[in-house]
Amino acid sequence: MNIDLEKPMTHLTENKEDRYRPKYHMTPPVGLLNDPNGFIYFKGKYHVFYQWNPFKTDHSTKYWGHFTSGNLYEWHHETSVLAPEDWFDHSGCYSGSAIENKGNLIAFYTGNVKNEKGERETYQCMATSKDGMSLDKKGPILHLPDNYTAHFRDPKVWKKGSTWYMIVGTQTKEEEGMVAFFSSENLTDWEHHGPIAGSYMNGLDYFGYMWECPDLFSLSGQDILIVSPQGLEAKGDKYNNLFQSGYFIGEMNYEDQTFSHGTFTELDRGFDFYAPQTTIGSNGKRLLVAWMGMPDEDEKNHPTIDNCWIHGMTIPRELSIMEDKLYQKPVEEMTCLRTKEVRHNKVSISTDFHEFDGISGNSIEMVIDILSKDYEVFNMRVSDAIQVSYDSSTNIFSLTRRKYHSEIDEVRECILEDLSSLNIFIDVSTIEIFINGGQEVFSARYFTDNKDSSVLFSCEGELSLKITKWDMKNSIIF
Ligand code: FRU
């Protein structure tokens, strides 16, 4: 495939119906997208850089692709900013973060290198920019400390007081996942203070062989560590995806470089959510975007590869803490994409699946309020590939999807004491379900063979709902 990186590459897919491409979620014009990188609000614009293989729909190389937005809902695809062509990053410009310093955007990323012997090397690198639209590489600023394998990557940098801090996702030589902690006064000389969290630390047992994409920030007076551990075993309704992304709430002690924390909670209970990254928005709110995908997936059989692209991002979410739990809500700006409102103030749901006037579509948002509680099971079907259910006797909320290219149904579940509202974003082949104002979230890709865009409701017992639906405007500009 001959790709001109200066130009958007939609022409490669122009001749084929691109039937699974979302309309308001960031997707790559061609190639593979994974982690969000360098998420930042800089000089009046949001930047979401991302892991991008522009040449193939696999993970064989990584550039930093780039989206910008003035408002968090309309995203422009820009020219790629980092290419893997130097001695310190030639096998991939891996994930990292961005900060602002003295009017410059400074990005930190992992230079991934496979040397002549086929061994992995890792370099934490810096790149700078005046306008955020192109990055000047400055090369490595941090070499691999002792005690870790070369699975050492994904630097996240922030400032507290006058000092800069960095955390990096690692694997120790004992093959345990941990987060390494560094500080610096000038962004180029970094002091290593050892790990602050990981397997066998702070009361945890073994907790995976590698921790990727760490992020540490404070919210409402508490410190939150987000991380994507690999190697956890499924336990009941927890950890059912191949890899997880979740958080610890705790307290970061910058004096003695320790982080004391509670238990690990998954951020998203659906099928496709990984490597989330946060930043502070223009209004001071803590925002999150994540890859709506999963590493080591069967890319060869993925339905969108016929159109030369694969994967996408979640919509931006705003974080808050309530009763020691992280809540995620769609950012308020998403309401600007709403058009053509349809509202049913009170509909009664019965045992047979039923469609309500105007409540359908493949690029929509819905708000569903539960008006009565006298029901046993509530069900909602989206096309023939997704079913959402809540059983009020067992308190199990579930998302069932038909696995693509098969007749197999897969389920993800969580316990929910009460269901009062659902805010659902459907976008052609993606669904994100925000439950009870963001108490739990389920994100998933799904693919249906027919062009069914129905939304159907049923229940056991008596249930009435208020349903509001909007069509969503297209908001991704390639
Ligand atoms: C997470 C991850 C990161 C790495 C990047 C490479 O999905 O494996 O640890 O930097 O993807 O694309």
Automatic annotation (TrEMBL):
Pfam families: Glyco_hydro_32C, Glyco_hydro_32N. Its EC number is 3.2.1.26. Transmembrane segments: none annotated. It is an enzyme of class 3 (hydrolase). It comes from Salipaludibacillus neizhouensis. Belongs to the glycosyl hydrolase 32 family. PANTHER family: BETA-FRUCTOSIDASE. It is found in: Cytoplasm. Residues 335-468 form the Glycosyl hydrolase family 32 C-terminal domain. Residues 25-330 form the Glycosyl hydrolase family 32 N-terminal domain. InterPro entries: ConA-like_dom_sf, GH32_Enzymes, Glyco_hydro_32, Glyco_hydro_32_AS, Glyco_hydro_32_C, Glyco_hydro_32_N, Glyco_hydro_beta-prop_sf, Suc6P_hydrolase. GO terms for cellular component: cytoplasm. Enables the bacterium to metabolize sucrose as a sole carbon source. Its main location: cytoplasm. Pathway: Glycan biosynthesis; sucrose metabolism. The keyword Cytoplasm applies. This is Sucrose-6-phosphate hydrolase. GO terms for biological process: sucrose metabolic process. SMART domains: Glyco_32 (SM00640).
